[in-house]
Design brief:
mainly beta; 137 residues; OB fold (Dihydrolipoamide Acetyltransferase, E2P); 1 helix
């Protein structure tokens, strides 16, 4: 099974191109996805994931997604290789988007917290927070 679910912020506006063979729209952009844990004394790390959206979904992304906006993407990982004019081989790994969602709040651009959040400890939760002493990192 090849399924990816990401939530992050766009690092730039989507870039639109059309294929040469059948003039199909393809939108490319990247997401800055925060890593889940932060080591004590360090800043939060992020991974920059390349996303490709085709046809109608690509059109949607290019029209409504803007740099800095938080979005959710569901898709699959794909790898490609090609040789350039000098004969050098290039490799790329990207996520091919199958679904795309807004993840910002409509009010102020902040996350509404409904996508991918961890339950917080409380009386109605079975989730328990460790003191951190027994964590492996």
């Amino acid at each position: 099974m090849n399924k990816v679910i990401l939530m992050g912020r766009l690092t730039r506006d989507p870039e639109v191109r059309y294929t040469q063979t059948n003039n199909t729209l393809v939108a490319s952009f990247s997401l800055a996805v925060n890593r889940r844990f932060v080591r004590q004394g360090e800043e939060r790390q992020a991974d920059f994931i390349n996303i490709v959206a085709w046809s109608k979904l690509g059109e949607f992304c290019s029209k409504y997604f803007k740099k800095g906006q938080q979005v959710g993407i569901i898709g699959r990982i794909q790898t490609r290789t090609w040789d350039d004019e000098q004969g050098q081989k290039h490799y790329v790994t990207e996520v091919v988007a199958e679904e795309a969602y807004f993840a910002d709040s409509k009010r102020d651009g902040a996350s509404d917290g409904t996508f991918g959040t961890m339950p917080m400890p409380g009386s109605d939760s079975d989730f328990e927070v460790s003191s951190g002493d027994d964590l492996p990192f």
